[in-house]
Amino acid sequence: MSELSVSSNIQRNPKYLELVARRGRLAWTLSAIVCVIFYGFILMIAFTPGILTEPIAAGSVIPMGLPLGVGVIVVCCLLTGVYVYEANQVFDPMFEEIVKDASK
Hints:
By secondary structure, the protein is mainly α. The chain has helices at about 5-10, 15-45, 50-55, 65-100. It has one domain (about 5-100). Helix 1 packs across helix 4 and helix 2 (about 15-45) runs antiparallel to helix 4. It is rod-shaped.
């Protein structure tokens, strides 16, 4: 079977269309969450700098902005982990099945 026919079989497969839609939905959802978090943090810096410069506890020299900034980074890393997990556990097996069906 030629590569062109396998490729066209994959693109016509309803499972492939479902895979593309699910992957796109997940990617856009996670991207939206990251944008809200990042822009929310930037908006806090712009409009409520007093909150970010307050110490986290009485007598502390660590401002609230530091753990919040670290939290932004940690949440983004976790969301990347969510995408990688879904890709490995859901999307890759789906794609392998699609390729196997198209190669028949």
